[in-house]
Amino acid sequence: MMKKVLLGTLLLISFNGWSSSVYRGLVTQIVCHADSVTSTCMVQLKNPPSGESCSANNDWKYAFNGSTPEGSNLLSLLLTAQVSRKTVGIRGQGKCTLVNYSEDISYVSIEE
Fold first, then answer.
1. How confident is the model at residue 51 (pLDDT cuts 50, 70, 90)?
2. Which residues pair with 42 in a beta bridge?
3. Are the beta carbons of 45 and 86 closer than 8 angstroms?
4. Choosing a second label site near 91 at 20 to 30 A (CA), which of 3, 77, 78, 102?
């Protein structure tokens, strides 16, 4: 029984992963605003992907809420990658709710 539950969970994760592609590249700029303006942070990438849903034709491809604990974690990862010139993997959520022209970030990873 446990094997069936594990297999079902893995398949569900795999199908959800197909909803938005992962961009791999270098972070060139990060901008975060004061809470009095907006708590949204935006990320600019070197050679950004083109044709992404709501972030098409925009240099600021991804956005996240910097005032949440999750947003603070994303900011730390992005700054670390930028300073160390490491490649990041960024997956978007496939929607632009924070900024109408930047895709909301689902996750960030630092890669070799």
1. low
2. 31, 63
3. no
4. 3
Residues belonging to the chain: 112
Contact status, residue 86 vs residue 110, Cβ threshold 8 Å: yes
Element (H, E) at 40: strand 40-45
Q: 10 pLDDT band (50/70/90 cuts)? A: very low
What is the CB-side half-sphere exposure of residue 60 using CA atoms within 13 A?
17
Q: What CA–CA distance (Å, rounded) separates 70 from 30? A: 16
Query: Scanning the structure block, which residue is given the tokens 């240099």?
Result: 59
The per-residue pLDDT for 52 is 57
d(CA 43, CA 75): 10
Instruction: Give the whole-angstrom CA distance, residue 7 versus residue 19.
Output: 19
Considering only CA atoms, which of 97, 79, 63, 66 is closest in space to residue 26?
A: 79
Q: Is the pLDDT at 14 greater than 60, yes or no?
A: no
For the chain, the 3-state helix, strand and coil shares in percent, each to the nearest 5, are 30, 35, 40
